[in-house]
Design brief:
Layout lengths: L1 E3 L2 H13 L4 E6 L5 H13 L2 E6 L19 H11 L3 E3 L3 H4 L18 H4 L3 H16 L3 E5 L3 H13 L5 E5 L19 H22 L5 H13 L4 E10 L14 E9 L2 E8 L1
Parallel strand pairs: 1-4, 2-3, 2-5, 3-4, 5-6
Antiparallel strand pairs: 7-8, 8-9
Helix pairs in contact: 6-7, 8-9
The chain binds adenosine monophosphate.
Length: 280
Amino acid sequence: MQIIRSVQEMQALAYELRSKGQIIGLVPTMGALHEGHLSLIRLAAERADAVVVTIFVNPTQFAPNEDFNKYPRELEADVAKCAGAGADYVFAPTHEEIYPKGYSTYITEEHVAKPLEGVSRPTHFRGVTTVVAKLFNICRPDIAVFGQKDAQQVAVIQKMVADLNFPVDIVVGPTLREADGLAMSSRNRYLTPTQRQEALAISQALFKARDMVAAGERRKDRLVAEATHILSQQRRIRVIYVALVDRRTMEPVREVEPGNAVLAIAVWMEETRLIDNIVL
Ligand code: AMP
């Protein structure tokens, strides 16, 4: 497996791979890789001839008060994990490679990015769409794999790809969870044992909603109320939102249309912001 640090080198490689007729699969990440990320790499390896994992803690998707500086960085361990999961290349550019001095171009999706995460993190998706568009231009993938864990990110990227005619197929991998239900996340390492225990209420709220839907419940009010109630039992949790939305538009829905609704949760677990969701 090869590590690439410069944009120029990555573009030359992408050109070479494509001219040989290889299907390029891209897995964008911010590193601190866990099994959830690795499952996306394996998914890419099933569908592509050459798998490129990008590792870049993208500053433009963090607000000034967020955890950009403390976000875990462990490139060496990540590279070993990528190799084990079947990646062929790791593209790990420096900040200056992606945002050279004087950088001034941004991409904003102006509808799907607005609710939910967009309310409390108004500049977040602008950073995501900008860096993903750049990674598409640099790595020229045929397919790009994203995790359902970030449901709104998936919807925003799919909208950007459709609106801007990127010739990239978006593949969505399921959310990987710890054995007790907690969605895997690089941010889980911020949690103390007590916080981690209380954080189980998030997945429990989602699973309860799934069970209610399986038993025939469709109404948003009932599902949101029950999930909110479960979260409210934990004194360290502060709910940011519990919302039933359309999987593609992120607009609120009043009733579950099976397969098309997402119950999305964001909370503060004391100083750590956690998100999770389930497709209903
Ligand atoms: P991140 O490094 O947090 O930017 O995530 C990189 C990719 O991994 C994104 O597409 C995420 O949605 C995905 N991802 C994060 N956590 C999980 C998980 N628990 N299961 C599956 N995919 C995940």
